Amino acid sequence: MVRPGHWGVRARVERFSEPALLLLLRERPTHGYELLEALPGVTGEARVDMGNLYRVLRGLEEDGLVTSRWEAGEPGPAKRTYELTVEGRRLLDEWAGALQGSRERIDTFLDRYEGR
Amino acid sequence: MVRPGHWGVRARVERFSEPALLLLLRERPTHGYELLEALPGVTGEARVDMGNLYRVLRGLEEDGLVTSRWEAGEPGPAKRTYELTVEGRRLLDEWAGALQGSRERIDTFLDRYEGR
DNA sequence: CTGTTACATGTGTCTTTTACATGTAGGTAG
DNA sequence: CTACCTACATGTAAAAGACACATGTAACAG
After folding, report:
1. With 60 as the cut, is the pLDDT of residue B6 above it?
2. pTM for the complete prediction?
3. Which nucleotides of D are covered by protein (CB under 7 A)?
């Protein structure tokens, strides 16, 4: 984005969709497309690329943070339902801690910005 | 990122060093190396690569967000001192607004995380 | 006057992350 | 049939970040 003329400001948190995913999965097992639609509600507007979402889900599964199974019986295209593992839960907790740190850093910045 | 399993968590704000730079320059004109040392104090953690820092500074200047001049007279290596322009000041304000948004999104997330 | 350290500004390049585009396929409504 | 929605997936390019190194000034030690 450091391209002449393009100093657009978004101030997004890096890979924020990851903890959002984990949080949604903590609430209940869900399939990819549903996560895609629910994510903006958690991240508060981050538009998620579905290509990347599926890649992340597969990666999480490879490392044992989520498990998945094909959902049978239901109408419509087959759905792969993901569920959080204990390790995934731990990763979510890690994220929560890191995000608290981020909040503090932003606060510090804003204090300094306003303070004068 | 942190290799093992590649799920390391940092929760950094994208390009946080940019508003930090602008904030420091709002306080007073400064040269690159000094910014490099002052940055962690503002961002509260960001280890900035100096090569990238100088590139960002040049980019900012190309777009008229900062101006620079070679500092003469002083002992030691020549220093290029940067100063914030009106447009740069406006970009900082934009960042501040965006960061407040980030703060709120993180709060929403953490509320949902803790809320149960 | 040689070597070392600190200051100061940069370039080159690789990897990771994100964005955008496209492909496959089942199901539903007109 | 065809258009559209759901659902999952791959390919690839651009952006952002990380890592390594090059250049030069000056102070100070030995």
Report:
1. yes
2. 0.90
3. 6-12, 15-21, 24-27
